[in-house]
Inverse folding.
């Protein structure tokens, strides 16, 4: 019985496919796999917007939105109606074609990465052999969309915001990919389904998640920090901070296109959280072996909601990083840290199981973390900051 | 006109488009883009021959394409930084005006 | 010559031809991105998954953005005279046409008699990794050195002069 509930969507899809003629079966199979993703994640986006506003409100000692619906939970409907009915203002000197395509490309890239994320047991849209590589490849198309948005608006502020955003996203893409390399090394495969399957085993009641190893824990922390920076979330939201540059690269967008940018950004946040869950937190696997009767997709969404809560919590708590602080952090701390993490994971792999490898790998990682952060704090250069784009 | 010759013709066409761009455009960055296109056309050639040629299990075509992509990326980076340095010196990226070593 | 090949080839040709002929440089870079994505799709169709995704990651995610940044920083985005064809406009196109004609003739005479009903070869990531570590380990190490040298070189070349004069 638990297996049936666990596989209920797979069984539903198989039953629906029986009623489809053979010639149309590949197409219908693809459509039936894609439609749940297209329905569930925008719904999650809607829920997250209201959760975020209420959560931030409570952290800041005020109520969030509480007018629309019980406790304000129908706020996304009001937001959606507002975005759809607002006038679509385009600057006169804007490049119309590129201005239109930028949010479209962002949403396409953001939706496309969900193809390789396993939501539950046997529930993945495409079991690609190079799944993790596909994720990072398509995720890197977001920067191009940011550039298109910033440049096509022909406004100094949006261009400046776009350049900052792209510099930040490119800088943090390296620690993001390198911190996932440790998991790829340990699992020996780039397929996300295989990585989750390898974490879905238990010794006693404790799971084999990669986050419970020193290199996995470090990788998880680095991945989450880099994911926060990739989605331009606070504390890394200098390119879009409302007190800095008004709205950064989507300053000239209004109405539905703005909503599409919002959607794309949040979808990117969900996608990187889901990838962190897949790589480090065991995907759809239950935390204790006694809890495997709960369906796999419930665990996946529970972990996803926990990570989203952590994102909202961090947004409400930490101040914004300045641009040069952000770049220093990426290149001088996170990149060496992720490389040392890879070395640590390699040492872990070749040492025999036991206390010794825990001690040595943890020592290497903690020592390098302490040394790197101290050198980062010491290298404060006091000189006039030169702005390269204002010359 | 089998599948292999289709891919090879496409690769030759892309190569000549890149060549035309690299020869005719005035902006240095576009010349670099043309060179990147030529490298890409050669990559397509390699992969097509890997797919339809003898001994595909040796993965030679795939390997060569991977290395070619890496080298092309490195070359694009260095080339664009050279263009930036030249621009900082002479305030132009117009290749027709960079003729101080001519004659 | 399946329909998917023709469609992808059309997208690629349109993208690259637009990249080489448009006046607005940023449009050129965006059209180039379209062409490169079309090429990546062609690699995927040929069964080289790893190369296709690497192409998207490296070219679209890095080289295209690098070119866009260079266009921004060299102020080439404004419509000036530099964006037109140079003085070698006609002869360049002619040379490219001749090159294409020669290559097309070579392809036609070389492969028209070939039997190419080959089964789909497998290039899984595992096999690529094994090949990289066993047969191609020397090129791998050299590529590492080359990329390091390119990284340092590009950084030094693009650094500001005022810092070096200090």
């Amino acid at each position: 019985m638990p297996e049936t509930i666990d596989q209920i969507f797979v069984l539903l899809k198989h039953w629906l496919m029986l009623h489809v003629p053979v010639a149309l079966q590949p197409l219908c199979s693809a459509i039936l796999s894609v439609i749940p993703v297209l329905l569930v994640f925008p719904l999650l986006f809607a829920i997250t917007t209201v959760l975020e506003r209420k959560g931030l409100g409570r952290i800041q000692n005020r109520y969030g939105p509480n007018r629309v619906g019980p406790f304000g939970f129908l706020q996304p409907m009001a937001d959606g109606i507002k975005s759809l009915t607002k006038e679509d203002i385009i600057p006169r000197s804007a490049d119309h074609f590129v201005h239109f395509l930028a949010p479209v490309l962002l949403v396409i890239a953001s939706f496309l990465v969900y193809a390789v994320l396993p939501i539950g047991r046997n529930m993945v849209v495409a079991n690609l052999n190079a799944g993790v590589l596909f994720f990072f490849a398509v995720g890197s198309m977001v920067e191009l969309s940011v550039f298109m948005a910033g440049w096509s608006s022909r406004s100094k502020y949006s261009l400046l915001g776009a350049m900052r955003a792209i510099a930040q996203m490119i800088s943090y893409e390296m620690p993001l990919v390198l911190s996932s390399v440790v998991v790829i090394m340990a699992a020996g495969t780039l397929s996300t389904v295989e990585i989750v399957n390898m974490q879905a085993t238990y010794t006693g009641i404790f799971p084999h998640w990669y986050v419970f190893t020193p290199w996995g824990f470090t990788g998880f922390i680095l991945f989450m920090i880099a994911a926060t920076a990739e989605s331009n979330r606070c504390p890394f939201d200098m390119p879009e901070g409302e007190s800095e540059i008004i709205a950064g690269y989507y300053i000239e967008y209004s109405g539905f296109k703005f909503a599409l940018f919002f959607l794309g950004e949040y979808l990117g946040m969900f996608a990187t959280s889901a990838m962190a869950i897949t790589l480090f937190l065991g995907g759809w696997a239950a935390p204790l072996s006694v809890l495997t009767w709960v369906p796999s997709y419930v665990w996946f969404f529970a972990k996803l909601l926990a990570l989203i809560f952590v994102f909202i919590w961090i947004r409400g708590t930490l101040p914004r990083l300045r641009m040069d602080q952000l770049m220093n952090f990426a290149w001088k701390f996170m990149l060496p840290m992720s490389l040392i993490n890879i070395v640590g994971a390699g040492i872990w792999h070749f040492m025999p199981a036991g206390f010794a490898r825990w001690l040595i790998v943890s020592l290497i990682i903690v020592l390098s973390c302490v040394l790197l952060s101290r050198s980062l704090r010491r290298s404060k250069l006091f000189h006039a900051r030169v702005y390269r784009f204002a010359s | 006109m089998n599948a292999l010759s289709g891919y090879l013709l496409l690769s030759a066409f892309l190569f000549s488009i890149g060549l035309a761009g690299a020869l005719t455009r005035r902006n240095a960055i576009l010349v670099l883009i043309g060179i990147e296109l030529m490298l890409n056309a050669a990559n397509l050639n390699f992969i097509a021959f890997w797919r339809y040629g003898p001994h595909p299990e040796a993965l030679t075509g795939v390997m060569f394409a991977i290395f070619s992509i890496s080298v092309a990326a490195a070359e694009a980076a260095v080339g664009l930084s050279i263009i930036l340095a030249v621009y900082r010196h002479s305030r132009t990226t117009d290749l027709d005006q960079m003729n101080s070593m001519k004659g | 010559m399946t329909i998917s090949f023709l469609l992808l080839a059309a997208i690629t040709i349109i993208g690259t031809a637009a990249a080489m002929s448009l006046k607005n440089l940023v449009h050129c870079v965006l059209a180039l991105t379209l062409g490169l994505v079309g090429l990546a799709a062609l690699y995927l169709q040929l069964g080289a998954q790893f190369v296709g995704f690497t192409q998207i990651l490296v070219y679209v995610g890095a080289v295209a953005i690098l070119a866009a940044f260079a266009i921004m920083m060299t102020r080439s985005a404004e419509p000036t005279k530099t964006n037109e064809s140079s003085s070698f406009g006609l002869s360049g196109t002619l040379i490219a046409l001749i090159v294409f004609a020669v290559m097309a003739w070579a392809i036609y005479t070389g492969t028209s008699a070939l039997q190419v009903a080959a089964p789909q070869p497998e290039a899984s990531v595992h096999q690529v990794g094994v090949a990289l570590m066993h047969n191609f380990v020397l090129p791998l190490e050299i590529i590492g050195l080359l990329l390091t040298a390119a990284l340092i070189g590009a950084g030094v070349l693009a650094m500001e002069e005022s810092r070096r004069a200090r």
User: Anything to note?
Assistant: The CA atoms of residues 5 and 45 of chain C lie 8 Å apart. The domain at 1-78 of chain C is CATH 1.20.120.1200 (Four Helix Bundle (Hemerythrin (Met), subunit A)).
